[in-house]
Amino acid sequence: MSDRRTRIEDKLKQALEATHVEVVDESHRHAGHAGAASGGGHFRALIVSPRFDGRGSVERQRLVYAALDAEMGSEIHALSMRTLTPVEWSKQ
């Protein structure tokens, strides 16, 4: 498990009061990409949080980006995300 991935998961859990977080480091799939050269990683995240209740997808993404503001552009070059409420997650 990468330390960077663990830090991202922990930060999302804390900032968003997330009940479930899965972060996958996909940086190896982007070797040679300009963002990889600067040291920023490529990540995919699944985040389940009650803070997403009543919010559209753009608002949810803004919450995630705000939680990871310090990491964006340095540790994180690219982030794809799936954001769900606990109710949406239970229906999966």
What is the structure about, briefly put?
The protein has four helices and three strands, in the order αβαβαβα. It is of the alpha+beta class. It has a three-stranded mixed beta sheet.
Q: What does this molecule look like?
A:
This protein has 92 residues and is of the alpha+beta class. It has one domain (3-90): GMP Synthetase, Chain A, domain 3. It is 37% helix and 25% strand. The protein is built from four helices and three strands. It has helices at 3-16, 34-37, 57-67, 86-90, and strands spanning 20-25, 41-48, 76-84. The chain has a three-stranded mixed sheet. The longest helix is centred in the N-terminal third of the chain and has 14 residues, at 3-16. The radius of gyration is 13 Å and the shape is globular. The mean pLDDT is 88.
Approximate strand percentage: 25-35%
What characteristic shape results from the CA principal axes?
globular
Would you tell me the structural class of the helices and strands? alpha+beta
Main β sheet profile: 3 strands, mixed
Q: Please give the count of helices.
A: 4
CATH superfamily (homologous) name: BolA-like
Radius of gyration from the alpha-carbon trace, in angstroms: 13 Å
Average pLDDT value?
A: 88
